[in-house]
Amino acid sequence: MTWHQALRRELVDALAAVPPDAPTLCEGWQARHLAAHVVLRQTSPAVGLGLLLPRVTSLADRRVEQLAATVTDDAAYRALVARVAKRPPAWHPTAWAGDAADSVELFVHTEDVRRGAGAADPRPLDAGLSDHLWRSLVRMAPLRLRGVHAGVVLVREDEVRARVRRPRGEGTAVVRGEVSELLLHLTGRGTAADVHVEGPGADALTAALPV
Predict the structure, then answer these.
(1) Are 201 and 183 in contact (CB under 8 A)?
(2) Which in 26, 60, 70, 126 has the greatest CB count within 10 A?
(3) What is the pLDDT of residue 1?
(4) Cβ-Cβ contacts under 8 Å for 156 (sequence gap 6 or more)
(5) Is the dihedral of CA 34, 38, 44, 45 positive or negative?
(6) Taking each helix axis from N to C terminus, what angle separates 3-16 and 127-144, rounded to the nearest 10 degrees?
(7) pLDDT tens per residue across span 40-52
(8) What are the residue boundaries of the structural domains of the chain, listed by start?
């Protein structure tokens, strides 16, 4: 089983464990909205483009709201969650991109559900999954941090580190935590993540990514 297949099962389990109106870490979204987003991300070209092109974002958001609005009872919610469990259709890019397209997305959205109602302990990660998410994190970090003037060094729990941004006049921030927590911080969920930010660039980083 690939990582994205295992992570999809974990997301389905997390969604099934909460009611459709359960809060998530995605502002304004309940569990039913998040489930709708995942379904449409892998079936609707408009929603897929909306994740990449700002001018299409409003259309993508409307599609998510429309699908979420069909969840009027528990049976409808269970049916929507069952659609989350299905693999993308063969024509969709995520069907062949596999781990590269889905592993971070599915992992983060599972945490959105798990931590939506408040603090939750980090999930223990398989060492192989932790390394996979770390590599993904290091690759995506420069784009995520493009508006931050501080340099950024990520340090995971075993002291492996990576410089993912050089300073632009604000010094360097060092962010420490487990891989899962670093990933949540970098994707804008730092207030729900257990990370420690230190160094002369800490203020500049936390202004962009609060903790």
Answers:
(1) no
(2) 60
(3) 63
(4) 130, 134, 176, 177, 178, 179, 182
(5) positive
(6) 90
(7) 988 876 655 545 5
(8) 3-114, 127-208
Please count the residues of the chain: 211
Rounded-to-integer distance, Cα 47 and Cα 44, Å: 5
Q: Which residue has the tokens 């089983």?
A: 1
In whole angstroms, give the CA distance from residue 123 to residue 193. 12
d(CA 201, CA 89): 44
Write out 123-189 in H/E/C secondary structure. CCCCHHHHHHHHHHHHHHHHHHCCCCCCEEEEECCCCCEEEEECCCCCCEEEEECCHHHHHHHHCCC
Name the CA dihedral angle for 56, 58, 60, 64, rounded to a multiple of 10 degrees. 180
Q: What is the per-residue pLDDT for 89?
A: 72
Per the structure block, which two tokens stand in for 80? 């929507």
